[in-house]
Amino acid sequence: MQELGEKGSPHPLPLYDSKKPSPSAGRMRKYQQLALTVIAAVSLVAFLFYKHEYERLRYTLEYLDTFGEPPEPSDVENINCGSNIHNLLTTPPADWVQVTSDLQVYSAFWDDQIGIGEPRIRVLAAARVSSEAPQDLGCLVWFESENEAVVGSCKVEAAPDRSHGHSTKEANVKVMFLLCAADDPRLMLSQTPHQVQLKVGTEEPSQPVFIHQSEGLKTVADRSTVCVLPPTIPFASIRVVEFIAYHHILGVHRFVLYGTVLTPLARALLDQYGDQIAIQYEEKLFSSGRHFHLSESVVHRVVELDCVYRHRDVQENVLVLGVDQYLILPDRPTLQATLITLGAARRPYKDVAQFHLTSQQVCIDQQHKHSHSQEAALLLAHPVHTTGPSVEAGVAILRPHLMNSVFTGPSNNQHVSVSTASVRQFVSCPTEPHQDTQHLPSNKKFVEKVHKSLLYRKWIINN
């Protein structure tokens, strides 16, 4: 019963909000929860990625503090992982073999004329100018399928001097080819010989000469070889290390060394670190004074012919240099880039058989030459004096796959300007004073790269 004076409420107040949530509000809360979940997941991934990169950077800095900076890209490019490529003896050994008192041979090559014509064995030989070629010159050819040597005959083919090359006209020894073949033509057409012996009449045959097998034109683009002439005097190990390291920076990965070029330290460094810097090297005997003396021009001609024939199926460019000669490229970082630039002018560079280079003799003052600092160890790091005019001294970049145009008849030749490429040869300075001291700025970048090269750094450690 209500108290007097109080009015009863027709609609009593509810104890709680009886309004129910709408379906749209529930969906909104679900979207908010999904968005928060996505943000949390993205934040977690970002945190893990940041932590991974931080740890990787920390490990990299610790590695650099411990082992130093990595080598230049030129030191490690084209490395064949898992294979031993240094001192790769892919071609038969060579040295002078005496046939008669006036005739000796150096190397032999299987010449199948690319499947056209008659196969034959091309033997590189040298003979005295005063002597006549033997009329009854024969050979013994060895095949894998035959238990005994097969009798054959040989004929002489002249090896004329290369255009703008080293002239051998004044020498008392001439360079020639002996073209030999077995008397049984079926064996020459069906099999490839591996050794040949030369003989005159009924005399005893010579020592066997291994035959280098070159089959077809299998040229690999952008591959260059430097063949090093046999030295007349011994070189210090730093001279060999600087020569190989410098030309390796220019893009040369294969070196063929004739005679006693390598010192024990240089050979040990190449054997131990050749894989890391992708350098292949071969050593070829060259005992030129064994039977009769060979002049400098004859030695250069024999090495050039042997090098070109030896690499005509695997290399695109061949350059024959002495240890004291350096290829100078002022504008381009590599030899191949220079050749491409040369070919952009008139004709494609791949059609040019030989690029003639200008040589400049330079010398270093004795006070710089006898400095014992590591910085002064490199020839290229010194100021130099020019000793005479720039001339074409027979150095050229040869194209082995263009054999016919290089050595017979007219060929596509191209003269290279000094501003594009040249050869610098270091010689002893005359006694008179010089006024033309100069240091070519174009060498500075290469000197820095030689200093950073692995081969030179290892020489510093082991010297």
From TrEMBL:
EC number(s) given by UniProt: 2.4.1.-
Q: Which family does it belong to?
A: Belongs to the glycosyltransferase 92 family.
By its UniProt entry, which PANTHER family does this protein fall under?
GLYCOSYLTRANSFERASE FAMILY 92 PROTEIN (PTHR21461:SF40)
- This protein's major location comes to membrane
Name this protein carries in UniProt: Glycosyltransferase family 92 protein
| Entry's localization field | Membrane
- A GO molecular-function annotation: glycosyltransferase activity
Its EC top class is transferase
Map out region (Disordered) in residue numbers.
Answer: 1-24
Q: Which domain of life is it from?
A: Eukaryota
Q: Which InterPro entries match?
A: Glyco_transf_92
Instruction: Give the UniProt keywords, A-Z.
Output: Glycosyltransferase, Membrane, Transferase, Transmembrane, Transmembrane helix
Instruction: State whether keyword DNA repair applies.
Output: no
Q: Name one GO cellular component term.
A: cytoplasm
Bilayer topology annotation = Single-pass membrane protein
